[in-house]
Write a structure and sequence with these properties.
alpha/beta, 3-stranded antiparallel sheet, 13 strands, 8-stranded parallel sheet
Length: 320
C-alpha cells in the first residue's frame, strides 16, 4: 500500500530567493507498507519544473500496488514523485533485510559531511548581519541573481571574513553580467558559482571564460543531462527531487565523476527525512548543501544531527 500526505513545516525565518519568499516548507510524505513493515520518503514539488503538491500526489497515487524500485524507474520520470517513492522503497528494503540502506547499495559506511548554510536574499545590511550571526559556519551559500548582487556579496564577506562562500545565482544572470562579476567573485574568495545563466540559455558558458568553477543546477536532472555539459560546467548539483530518488542520484554521481565533473549534493527546503538519503550521495562530495532542516522551526520526530563535523547520517528511526 502506498499512501501520500501533504504536510507543512514552519521555517525559522522567511526564506527568500530571486523567485520569491516562503514561510513554510510544503512537502509530500510517502508511506509504503508491506508485510507489516513501513518505508518512508519525502519530496518537495517544485513549480520551476512544473510540479505542484496536487500533480505530484496524483502521480504517486496512480502507481500500481506492489511496484518495486526497478519498475519505478520506468513508471515515473525523474522528479519529485519518483524521489519520494524510491526513497520509501529503499527504506522498506532495508527494514526487510535488517540492514542499512548504505549496505544494500554497496556503499562504504557513511560519516558526517560539512554542509553549506544558506543565507536568504535580503538587503545588504541584513545579509551582513546574517553572515555575522553565522560566521562560525565553515561554508555559507548566498542566494543572488538580482541587479544589486555586488553590494550583497561585499556585505556577506564583511560579515563572515573567514567563511568559504559559494554563490547561487538561480539562473538570474546574463553572460555579460557573469563576465563582469567573475573577477569580483574571485577577489572576494568565492569558491564556486551555481547556475549563473538560465537553463536552456547556458550554451554561452562554453564561449566565455570561467575563472572559477561553475555548477549546473537547474540544467542538471539525471544522467541524460550530462552530454550537454561539456565545455560549459565544471560541477553538477545532484538533488534527489530532480534525479527522481536515491537510485538515480547514485548513478548520476558515479557517471558525473567518471566524466571528470566535481559533485555538489543539494536539496530543496525540506525536512530531515528528505535529507537522509542525500547524505549517502554526499559522501566525498566537493560541496554538500543539505541545510534544509537548519532552516526549519520544526522537523521530523527523529531529526538528523548537525554539529561541528557537519550533517550526520540518519538513525534507523528516521530513515534507512
Amino acid at each position: 500500500m502506498i499512501q501520500v500526505q501533504a504536510e507543512s513545516f514552519r521555517l525559522a525565518e522567511v526564506f527568500t530567493i530571486s523567485r520569491g519568499s516562503r514561510t513554510e516548507a510544503k512537502v509530500l510524505t510517502v508511506r509504503v507498507e508491506r508485510n507489516g513493515l513501513v518505508g518512508w520518503g519525502e519530496c518537495v514539488p517544485y513549480a520551476r519544473y512544473g510540479e505542484s503538491l496536487e500533480s505530484v500526489a496524483a502521480q504517486i497515487e496512480a502507481l500500481p500496488e506492489g511496484i518495486d524500485r526497478m519498475a519505478l524507474q520506468e513508471a515515473l520520470p525523474a522528479g519529485a514523485a519518483r524521489n519520494a517513492v524510491d526513497c520509501a522503497l529503499w527504506d522498506l528494503e532495508a527494514k526487510a533485510a535488517g540492514k542499512r540502506v548504505w549496505e544494500l547499495a554497496g556503499l562504504t559506511k557513511p560519516g558526517p559531511e560539512i554542509t553549506c548554510f544558506t543565507l536568504s536574499l535580503d538587503t545588504p545590511e541584513n545579509m551582513r548581519a546574517a553572515a555575522a550571526r553565522h560566521a562560525h559556519r565553515p561554508v555559507l551559500k548566498i542566494k543572488l541573481g538580482t541587479p544589486d548582487d555586488m553590494a550583497r556579496l561585499e556585505a556577506v564577506r564583511a560579515g563572515a571574513p573567514d567563511a568559504r562562500i559559494v554563490v547561487d545565482a538561480n539562473e538570474g544572470w546574463s553572460a555579460e553580467v557573469y563576465t563582469e562579476l567573475a573577477p569580483h567573485l574571485l577577489r572576494l574568495g568565492v569558491a564556486m558559482v551555481e547556475q549563473p545563466l538560465p537553463a536552456g540559455q547556458d550554451a554561452l558558458l562554453a564561449e566565455i571564460a570561467r575563472p572559477l568553477p561553475v555548477c549546473a543546477d537547474e540544467s542538471c536532472h539525471d544522467r541524460h543531462s550530462l552530454p550537454d555539459f561539456k565545455g560549459k560546467y565544471d560541477m553538477v548539483n545532484i538533488k534527489l527531487d530532480k534525479t527522481g530518488g536515491l537510485t538515480e542520484a547514485l548513478a548520476l554521481r558515479d557517471a558525473a565523476r567518471a566524466e571528470g565533473y566535481q559533485v555538489m549534493v543539494g536539496c530543496m527546503v525540506g525536512t530531515s527525512l528528505a535529507m537522509a538519503p542525500a547524505v549517502l550521495v554526499a559522501q566525498g562530495a566537493e560541496v554538500t548543501d543539505l541545510d534544509g532542516p537548519l532552516l526549519l522551526a520544526e522537523d521530523r520526530q527523529t531529526p538528523l544531527m548537525f554539529d561541528a563535523a557537519g550533517v550526520h547520517p540518519s538513525e534507523p528511526g528516521l530513515w534507512g
